[in-house]
Structure formats: C-alpha cells, structure tokens
Specification:
There is one protein chain. The protein is of the alpha/beta class and 258 residues long. It folds into two domains: 3-96, Translation factors (Elongation Factor Tu (Ef-tu), domain 3, Beta Barrel), CATH 2.40.30; 110-256, Rossmann fold (3-Layer(aba) Sandwich), CATH 3.40.50.80. The chain is 16% helix and 34% strand. A seven-stranded mixed sheet has the order 10-9-8-7-11-12-15, with helices on both faces. The protein has a six-stranded antiparallel β-barrel with strand order 1-2-5-4-3-6. The protein has a two-stranded antiparallel sheet with strand order 13-14. Strand 13 (230-233) and strand 14 (236-239) form a beta hairpin. The protein is globular.
C-alpha cells in the first residue's frame, strides 16, 4: 500500500563531487520495500521544481525503519535536496513500482550491471541476493572514477568489477568490454543509461541469459496517472512507473529493436 510520509533525515553523506546519500527514518512503521522499487520525492523550497522527483531506493534497514537514497546532483531539484541537513524532513510517496524478480536459487550465477547513479538500486538487490545464498558478480561502469559513487559497500555482498571509459579506475572501456561480462551467468540485472542497458540486454538475449532491466524514464506521478513514462513494449504500451520500472528484457525487444 502506497503511503505519503514525512521521513526524517538521519544522515547525509557526500559521495564525491556529484553524488550524496540521504538516510531517512520513518516516523513510525515503514512499509516493506523490495529491491528495484522507487520513491517520489517532494522538493520543497525550490519554486522552479513543481513535480516530485523519482529516485531509486539504494538500501533499506527494516529493523531501524530507515531507507537510503543515492542521489546525483544534476539540476535544480537535486541541488536543493543536496542542501538538506540532518533533522529536516523529506516528503515521500512510497513504495512505488515493481521491483526485481528474486526467483533465483541458492548458488546461482548472477551478474549485476550498473552505470553511474544506476548502481543505486543494485546495492539493495545485492544485499537481498546475499541473504538468499547468492553471491553475485557486480559490474559498475562510468565515464571516470569520479562518476562511480559506491564501491567498498558492494564488496561485502558480491565480487566487484569496475570499468571506466578513461581507465581512471578498473578496466578501461565499456562494461560490456570488461572480461567478467563475458562469463557464463544464469541471470543478469541491469540499471543505468539506456545505451548501456540496451547493450547488456542485447548480449544477454543473444546468449540465452534471462535479463531484467530497470528503466529510468521520466516519471512525474509514479502511479500511472500522468502517462508521461509510457513505453511501447512487446506487450503493448505500459507505464514504467506502474508496470515497471523493472522489465524482463524479452518485453523490450520492440522498444529497443533487439
């Protein structure tokens, strides 16, 4: 059941020049959030930002009643969010969308591929997979080292691989060119820039690997009312915010000409 709630900012941490995290505590009983779901954030104190901002859930601590958001500073809305401090309140609509399919058996070979801020929901996913007896390979890419916001945290839940376009960190080149990408897997999950996800999905389909993609379309309402996030899939026109944001790549063949 969706809620509109004022969360309390418990911690703020800068992650390089362009990223920061907010740890938010629910005032009472937090709803369950599954990996891949997102929230719609109200940006107060910024007249230019009228609509809520959709942001993936980076981590969840059910015992403490907290969730964490990893945010990239890209515009007026996110710059305003970056100014918030501990003790302030942030209004969220949550939990929204359908998360990642977690139907993998213990010991399965799983690859997580993220690009920049697209790595955000993969942390929650890696954590959940580890609880199910799956230690995934985690492949994170970016144009340079400064655009890879989280590293060490992933290593407790999986085997971390990194690719940067300029070679400033990890393997030089695209994520699809990293040696670990060519290994055999039972399933691949991906989130990040569309060209990256399309390349990952195309390779997975060609190799007969089940692949789940988290789309990052503009989502103004988060509940399927405004229709601004509709995509043309193999099952017809679907709202990313309501039927997604996670889709089996098989449904995206028409959208991406795969």
């Amino acid at each position: 059941m969706k809620q509109v709630t004022d969360f309390i900012i418990e911690e703020r941490e800068q992650r390089g020049a362009q990223y920061f995290t907010l740890t938010l505590r629910h005032p009472s009983q937090m709803q369950k959030i599954v990996p891949g779901q997102f929230v719609e954030v109200r940006v107060d104190g910024c007249r230019e930002v009228m609509l809520r901002r959709p942001i993936s859930v980076h981590d969840v601590d059910e015992e403490r009643g907290t969730l964490k958001l990893l945010i990239q500073i890209v515009g007026r809305g996110t710059r305003r969010l970056a100014q918030l401090g501990v003790g302030e309140r942030l209004n969220l609509v949550y939990p929204l969308g359908n998360g990642f399919d977690l139907g993998v058996s213990e010991g399965s070979r799983v690859l997580l591929v993220g690009g920049g801020a697209g790595s955000a929901p993969l942390y929650h996913l890696a954590k959940e997979l580890s609880h199910r007896g799956v230690r995934p390979t985690i492949l994170i890419g970016g144009r340079n080292a400064g655009l890879i916001p989280v590293r060490d945290e992933f290593e407790q839940f999986g085997d971390l691989c990194i690719a940067t376009d300029d070679g400033s960190l990890g393997h030089r080149g695209l994520v699809t060119e990293h040696p670990c990408f060519a290994a055999s897997y039972d399933r691949i999950y991906t989130c990040g820039p569309t060209p990256m996800m399309k390349a990952v999905a195309q390779s997975a389909l060609q190799r007969g690997i089940e692949c789940y993609v988290s789309l990052e379309n503009m989502m103004a309402c988060g509940v399927g009312a405004c229709l601004c996030c509709v995509v043309d899939t193999d099952e017809g026109h679907l709202c990313v915010c309501k039927e997604g944001p996670v889709f089996n790549a098989e449904k995206l063949k028409k959208l991406w000409n795969l």
